[in-house]
Amino acid sequence: MAVNLTVNGKTHQVDADPETPLLYVLRDNLELNGAKYGCGIGQCGACTVMVDDEAVLSCVTPLLLLEGRRVTTVEGLGTLAKPGPMQQAFIEEQAAQCGYCIPGMMMRAQALLQVDPSVSEAAIRAHLEPNLCRCGTHMRIIKAVMRAGDLMRQNPQGGGAT
User: Fold this and answer.
1) 53 phi/psi in degrees, rounded to 5
2) pTM of the predicted protein model
3) CATH for the 2-75 domain, from 3.40.50.720, 3.40.50.300, 2.40.10.120, 3.10.20.30
4) Whole-angstrom distance, CA of residue 86 vs CA of residue 113
5) Which among 29, 144, 149, 154 has the fewest CB atoms less than 10 Å away?
6) What backbone torsions phi and psi does residue 54 show, to the nearest 5 degrees?
7) What is the mean pLDDT of residues 76-90?
8) How far apart are CA 31 and CA 39, in angstroms?
9) What are the sequence ranges of the domains in the chain?
């Protein structure tokens, strides 16, 4: 079955079983490898992407639910040459250790800050709770998200999800 899938602003026609998890389509069909396979059962958050403007666990989201919806991956937040505010903040705060969880953390945080870039640290902590970091860089991740909020408030048009 062919499904029209809009990812990072580009429409793709994907020929795959409708039950195929979005994560596999992103990685195998579209070669977007930012979202990671962690647990495969929606418990670690490494696979987090945004569908429309909400954080979604792509390892448990079947392709059939995505026709006509907007998918944004970490690749859609910016580029190497021009990182988006979330990416820039993670770089500046050196929030990644091994980096495996970071794309999922960024996407969950992006969904939060798009609604309100002035959220409290407590709200950030609560929102990121479904995402795990085995390296223990949670404090730097929290600082990076707060910095991203600052960057987004300073320049509301300066980047963000497509």
Assistant:
1) -120, 20
2) 0.94
3) 3.10.20.30
4) 9
5) 154
6) -115, 145
7) 97
8) 20
9) 2-75, 85-154
Report helix, strand or coil for 33: coil
**CA 142 to centroid of chain Cα atoms:** 15
144: part of which helix (H) or strand (E)? helix 138-154
Cβ-proximal residues to 37 (8 Å cutoff; 6+ apart), any chain: 23, 27, 46, 47, 59
Give CA–CA dist 29/13, Å, rounded: 10
Mind listing the pLDDT tens digit for each residue in 21-41?
Answer: 999 999 999 999 999 999 999
Same fold, 2-75 and 85-154: no
Residue 160 has pLDDT above 80, yes or no: no
Report d(CA 153, CA 72) in Å as an integer. 21
For 85-154, CATH number? 1.10.150.120
Q: Specify the residue for token string 């085995």.
A: 134
Give the chain's mean pLDDT.
94
Say yes or no to pLDDT of 161 above 50.
Answer: no
Q: Using the structure block, give the residue that is written with the tokens 């907007």.
A: 70
* 159 pLDDT above the threshold of 60: no
